[in-house]
User: Fold these one by one.
Assistant:
Number 1:
Amino acid sequence: MPLWGPLLLPWVLGAVLAFLDGRRAWVAWLAIAGLAGTLVCTVLLLPQAWSAQAPQFVTGDWPVGVGIRLRADQLSIVFALVSTSVVLGTLVYEHVAGGITSRSFPALVVFMGAGLTGVFFTSDAFNFYVFFELAMTAAFGLASYGEKPRNLRAAFTFVVVNLMGSSLFLTAVVMLYLTTGTLDMLSIIAWGQAGPPFALLVPGTLLLCAFGVKLGFFPFHFWAPAVYRDAGPTVAALLAGALANIGSYGLLRFGVDVMPQVLAQARPLLEVLGAASILYGSILALSRRDTREVLAYASISQAGLIITALSLEGREGLCAAVALALAGSVDKTALFLAQDRGGERARRAYSVAAFSTAGVPPTAGFWSKAWLLRAALEQGHTPLAGLVVLASTLSLLALFRAYQRERWLREGAALHRGTGAVVYALSLALIVAGFWPEPLLRAGRDAIQGLGTLP
Amino acid sequence: MILIASLVVGLLFAVGVRMVLERELVRVACGTVLITNSSVLLILAGSFPERGEALNVHDGGPVTDPVLQSLALTAIVIGFAVSALLLTLVHRTQRAHGSLRTDRLVEAELKRVHAVEKEEGH
């Protein structure tokens, strides 16, 4: 499978879909088929990414540095797989739940998928910005989906805050270019090994802020609760499940791979920010009444866990960060979709995803948290390990307080066979990963193995 | 030259942040446009030190870095699209709420939250 397959397919399809009326069933099925095709193309790239030479492609056959290099190593592939599956699941859910109400919805979702795949596959800092903006612009369009006044308010907040994040990111990329003289990530890595140790500190800080806004950890979290509460449930699932992956992937790619020196200097800061957002997220999740706000604060605490994992020295912590990001993405999607409906099926799916978020076995969330705990204890960060356990207990409490209060017995809004299948598939994935964690753990370990220059 | 450029970038960014904090949506939108444009100017300013004429190559003099110019062009296009999207959103918010003041929007939001809580109380 050539590398441009999963990039070009959703892009071309999105352009075609933009001219079609998305409220018709066949258009929605076309979009679903396209995203499924993208997923299959990405799966076909798996053996190549795990071979010695990661698949690579330079645009226009120019020499590297002039042409844009696209490259799919293990980290890119696992993030692309999980994000595309989540986006696909959400689109199927929205379609079978009762029809899409906006003409542009399928096109925007497919464009978001294209942007996400591009972000994960590119190996050029500015190209990263372009794909990032493609995904963000699609998300800006999606944020107001539903067209109610509350959706519009959520969209406005989301757009303004994330535009600031995008400007910071653009500035950081340009600073990287001005300092190192290249935009190609592999060349920046080579420059960083030889260059002065503090040269990339300013762009690194700006990148931390930009990805912090995307991922939503303390103190960049302020937009998340309002947006997740007031956007539609499917949109909230897309934003929390798929789009937040850009933040965790960006931190891993730029922090661990491109600028390991800056990450090493930022460790104490990350530790403080991570601990603060774990505490803040789990305590405020307990105090909220609205289920979606509870979920938003739980995702802030999850972001804190990822940051904490990044702050640990050595590879174990980084593997835990990958596993946390992947498991968290599926958890959040399942939670946001399940809380929208009433009835028996929704209750079951919600509890599985809530157990996974809190890290109760046998779920995917348990293994990622266990890995983080092991890494923290091996490094001698006992207080941090205590904090992780405390956060898990608090988020279990908060999620099940919401569970008790939620209007589960609401009439007429139960999950039917189609929507139930989507939510069940997500929850089942969490349980299967809990009973057979080898693929998840191996994905985390191999993804980090492919990166950079760490000891 | 580089001093003037950096002062202008800083000024644009500061004015943009100030306007984002205003209470009217159009001003907030204009503020974000200014911030986007301050980063575009920063990109262009990056190529100023070696700048002779725009693409003056014939007498061996300094040449503007074409990469930065193409980056600026891309950023302008993206910024333009997103600004258009933002203004559409302002327009639709105005139609839905009948107001452009953020305090009105907050009032509407609080009203909805209270209504939901009342419903749960019963």
Number 2:
Amino acid sequence: MIRRTFIALAAGAASLAFIGHAAAQETIKIGASAPKTGPLAAGATVSHWPNIQLWVSEVNERGGLKVGDQQMKIELVEYDDRTSAETAVQNIQRLATVDNVDFIVTPYSTGLNVATAPLIARYGYPHITTSAITDGVEEFAGRWPNSFWMLGTSKELAEGTAAALKKLMDAGEIGNKVALVHVADAFGLELAGAGKPALEAAGFEIVYEASYPLGTQDVSPIISQAKAAAPDAFVGFSYPGDTFALTEQAQIQGLEVGAFYVGVGTSFPAYAGRFGAVANGILGAGGTNPDDEKIKEYRAKHKEVTGADADYWASAVTYSGLQVLEQAIEAAGTKDREAVVEAIKTGTFDTVMGEVKFENNVNRNLWTVGQWKDGVFYGVAANGIDGAIEPVKKDGWE
Amino acid sequence: MQIIVTGILLGGTYALIALGLTLQYGVARIMNLANGETFVAACFIAFWLFTAMQINPLLGLLVIAPAAFAVNWAIYSVLLKPLVDRAKNRGMLEVDSILATFGLLFLLQGLMLLVFGGSYFSYTFLAERFMILGNPFGLNRVVAFGAAVAIAIGLYFFLYRTRQGTAVRAVAVDPNSARLVAIDVAKTAAFAFALGGALTACGGALLSTFYTFNASMGVVFTMKALIIVIMGGVGDIRGAVLAALILGITETAVASLIDPGLTIAATYALFIIVLLFRPQGMFGRQTT
Amino acid sequence: MTLDQSEIRIGLLGAIAIAALATLPLFSQGYYLSLGVNLMLYAALCTAWTLFSGPTHYISLATAAFFGLGTYTVGLWVDHVPFFALVLGGGVVAAVLAGLVGLATLRLSGVYFVIFTLGLAELVRQLVSWTQTKVSTRMGLYVFTDFTEMHIYWMLLALTVAVFVTGWLIGRSRLGFAMKIIGNDETVARHVGIDTARAKIILFMISGAFIGIAGAISAPRYAYIEPPSAFNPMISFLVVIMALLGGTKRLWGPLVGVVPFTILFDQVSAQFPNHTPIVMGLAFLAIVYLLPDGVTGRLEQLRARMKRTENAVGEEKVA
């Protein structure tokens, strides 16, 4: 049984290698390694893999990438890193030295991007991250000159949140008392670390603060404690499972706040699907301008090709990162990695997120806060992008 | 007061997670690492019944429980029975069943990924306010708790008041002696394994009404179930229920009074303490 | 110390094998080296695990706890203390934890010990996470060194050798003798005056220390260290499974589990990126049913059968 499997495996490998060889003339090989299993698989399934699928299908439908005077179709090589750094490192090595791919698209999550960055740098591939959010990006950009950071820093995201709340306070919609909770992992901790001083600087008083372990879904004690502190606004730097749970508990317990903010997952289509009209007025991380023609077109294509709705934040950023790679390769007119890295550094790119330009390898134009309005998640705060609408007060839970 | 009610409700949730495993492990002697996958599979089926066919998850139990019973019976007789037959002692069976169910875990998870994809799922069912002693609680949690109580009582009556239940308990205590009093041990073990699977599936279906889940989450539930089963004493229904309630109340108390960041640490600390002082479970008798 | 003929032969063969393995980075700096690092990591972990679990039959799931402590020791102080001191430090920290655990739990038997160690790994991870939320505003630690895959490979190779040598020395020592008796029958061991608890604790500490060191060596490879990756429970499970697959009766048993398992896992995930879990699950079930005593068990069976045929042939000649 095992021997037969091995023979089948070997035969499969041989035929793959043969096809790869026969078509080598006119294709460009792109490698991808990201979680398909493990704790981060769910997030990657929503905002990472579908965009790679969409991008490859779009480019190939057009006839391929224009490299110099050749049209090259994309051949995608994909691996599952099982949400583990060891496997991710090994996958990158395999892509670089066994599959000899021409380019590598970004891994998923801060941790896996940082763990693979030294290797990707060693092989000189352009590394355009679209799912890493940390305050270290400037340092990383200096350390690995081939790396580009699209999703900004936790500080920007947290300050955006404080700014959006301040708008509501200045408009007299909410008072100055905030309850702040966060998930106890890198993302939650960095956002809370940056968000606290930003909220205080904006004139807010933090009346309740707590962290909870990764994976917690039984959050009713947290909401009831927060409720007891009688806040005017609730801010949760949370992950998908707890984002849903915090919202449901707030609704059940009737947490009376004028602003309710939750983190990753708020911008998922499933969020509106679950909460319906109750989602109206809820603030969350990220955002896009859904009225923008490009975004509209992108969302329609995403639905058409992958069968699922794009989320309103990381999806579009991931896709725009792929567009940057595509346009840089075409601009450089070669598969030469160094030339493409240079093209990314100096170029300006026209993406679904608008114009992207890197300052010292970091993208500064991004959405920070969005808000649900009639089943659509609108950006209400952004740096360097137009099209944000004004945040409004959350009006009850019924 | 709110802490205690919230804690008891949470304890009901945990009891749902653990009751199936305590039967599978305590009676059939299978340390089923794929228990969480059964649980998540039931979440998916409840989700599918609700969204595609508009079938209320409570009615869905009528489909899910028998289906899970049949599937688990098949798993036991096809996959696990050969291991039971070939094991020379309990230790060997333990090692073999850990390895085999680990493979099963992958297989089930892979099938779920294939069918449903890897993203998050949730739906709204009875997410309404329900007042207990002047405090608001989620009606779906209250319903799940009620179902947990019903299941636990039903199980208790079955085990302590019926012939077949007595046979199950006898096998749990000592398979060899059970054979001497003309109990069909193999059949009873298969029955207990299948019943455990059905209970786990009921738990999953009920939890899906207020949990956000995805195909990779099974192991989370397996761990929780293992803790409760060991704390309560392997194969001891009353112990498992009590352990689940204690955990629920402890977690809620720690989250409310000390720091929500320490809830899981508190769980494990409590678990370790119980293991150190009463390794045979809270109701267990000293065996040596 | 005296060595007999076969020991010298094994030693020489071992030295040649080690020298051959050490040249791997000369042939591949890429994928095969990475695969080599993973192989070597699990070879070290599984053999260290077997040092304790082989003779005592205790299945420990605390590997992730020791490993994570080693990783964190490096992560916390890499900018202040020389790396090699930290590697040893990681071993010491893990050994201390192992000692404490041993004191508290080794009177537990069988499955209770399994679950306890699993709980312990989670508890340590939760406490580390929580402490970080209180003392720091960021969760991840960065470990940037000049080490490349090659260096990590060599360090892990050296560690694996050290584990083997230690295992061999233990086998020759009073402790090893005591463990043999304990493994056969603990009651007998106690009656002949062996302090069984002490012997087990020492062994657990040695095993834990090696696992901690392996974690410390791996830290530069992660570069970014977070509790979920450093204390990943999968590490514990994989170690147990590979070791059991190989067989724990011999010191080299786990090795014959690690090599095929790692390569199979790797091949499967390369060929079936979208169906890895299904294929893995099936492969796993096949192994359990076809190789009931692990690879070493099967090898020994084969050897016994060959001997029998040899004898049979020999007898025929005589006749």
